[in-house]
Design goal:
- The chain has 371 residues and is α/β, with parallel strands linked by helices.
- The chain folds into 2 domains: 248 residues, HUPs (Rossmann fold); 96 residues, Orthogonal Bundle (Tyrosyl-Transfer RNA Synthetase).
- 51% of the residues lie in helices and 11% in strands.
- The protein is built from 19 helices and 9 strands.
- Strands 3-4-9-8-5-6-7 form a 7-stranded mixed β-sheet, sandwiched between helices. A two-stranded antiparallel sheet has the order 1-2.
- A hairpin with a 2-residue loop joins strand 1 and strand 2.
- Helix 14 packs antiparallel against helix 18.
- The radius of gyration is 21 Å and the shape is globular.
- The structure holds tryptophan.
- The site of tryptophan (TRP) has 12 residues, from strand 5 and strand 8.
Length: 371
């Protein structure tokens, strides 16, 4: 098992990661607190898709005292958006709604240029495409600010150098697995990803908490910079971690847009979704119909079932499918059809909203007049 922002390999042991990274699982009490504070409930929390945290309790207590947090997350524009990205961002949008808070959304075009085999112009293309997907999820433009690392360099860079000065090359190498042959931009980059944790406070002369919803592979950036943020006079960020959505082809690794077989893209049409799932989705069912009826399937390793946990919000429906699958009443192909329908109905709405997004772009991109 390997997990850094730049590599996710093998089947992920989340308990082990929590102890390695020094993070805590979200307790039932903490879930209950969120429910009480917001009068709302999210299947992402209920089902442990978002499962771990740093300083979340503190962040909620500050909120109760009237010191509202802002949200911060991001997107690295290196290719098309897939369902794995969407899980994290849909939950982030839910948090924005139920807590009525601001979202700062960072687009790391610098990062993807430095780390991927892509030309600058290609990254700019994906930047624009990816922004449309984020807008399509329904974030509130008045409360959502897009920060683009190259375009907003004059705002971000003066703060990023303050972060960079307090992080050594050896710390970066250890956290991200870099060697002496990494380019020098990649060493600096993590400072750019930390800066939005406190940048809104600099711009407004405030000191509000920051809550970062992220896929757990991104945790190393903040693990090495939490103390730095504090030394600069701001609160350490609170973090809420998601598990990685399993790739189409089975429970190992993570979904990636550079491997189209492993992912469903937001721009896939209904026939493509159907074809990919029917052809590639890893099945927890038995090899033959006879054996399946006799022994039943295993939803825990079945991609179709695992993905339904993201899209079917009704617990009773989901549990019923699991039970029928386990006892062999429901077949693998039937389960696949359920997830195909669920994803296609989600994507139909998403693609509609994405068309409208173009005209809203300027409302989302940060400029000082927005504050
Ligand atoms: N590095 C992230 C990626 O590759 C993008 C990102 C920037 C991010 N800032 C973030 C992700 C904050 C989570 C939280 O996709």
């Amino acid at each position: 098992m390997k997990i850094t922002p730049y590599q996710v390999e093998g089947s992920i042991d989340y308990e082990k990661i929590c102890s390695e990274f020094g993070i805590k699982q979200i307790t039932p009490e903490l879930k209950e607190k969120i429910k009480q504070m917001t009068n709302a409930d999210s299947h992402f929390l209920r089902r442990g898709i978002f499962f771990a945290q740093r300083d979340l309790k503190w962040c909620l207590e500050e909120y109760e005292k009237g010191n509202k947090f802002f949200l911060y997350t991001g997107c690295g524009p290196s290719g098309p958006i897939h369902l794995g990205h969407l899980g994290t961002w849909r939950f982030a949008k839910w948090l924005q709604d139920v807590f009525d808070v601001e979202m700062w959304f960072q687009f790391t075009d610098d990062e993807k240029f430095l780390f991927k085999n892509l030309e600058y112009d290609q990254v700019q293309h994906w930047l624009r495409e990816n922004m449309l997907d984020v807008i399509a999820l329904g974030f509130d433009p008045k409360k959502t600010h897009f920060l683009i690392n190259t375009a907003h360099a004059s705002i971000i860079y003066p703060e990023a150098i303050k972060v960079a000065k307090k992080i050594t090359t050896s710390t970066v190498k250890g956290a991200f697995g870099f060697t002496d042959s990494n380019n020098i931009g990649s060493i600096f980059y993590t400072a750019m990803q930390t800066t939005p944790v406190f940048l809104p406070n600099v711009l407004r002369n405030e000191n509000r908490p920051c809550l970062v919803p992220l896929g757990i592979d991104q945790d190393p950036h903040f693990r090495i910079s939490r103390d730095v943020v504090e030394k600069l006079g701001f609160h350490k960020p609170a973090i809420i971690h998601a598990k990685m959505m399993t790739p189409l082809t089975g429970p190992e690794g993570k979904m990636s847009s550079s491997d189209a077989q492993k992912a469903i893209l937001t721009t896939d049409d209904p026939a493509t979704v159907k074809k990919k799932i029917n052809k590639y989705a890893f099945s927890g069912g038995q090899d033959t119909l006879e054996k399946h009826r006799e022994l039943g399937g295993n939803p825990d390793i079945d991609t179709a079932y695992q993905w339904l946990r993201y899209f079917e919000e009704d617990d009773a429906v989901l549990e019923d499918l699991a039970a029928k699958y386990r006892c062999g009443e429901l077949l693998s192909g039937e389960l696949k059809q359920k997830v195909i329908d669920a994803i296609n109905s989600f994507l139909a709405k998403h693609q509609e909203a994405r068309k409208e997004a173009e005209s809203k772009l300027q409302e989302f991109i940060f400029h000082p007049g927005k504050l």
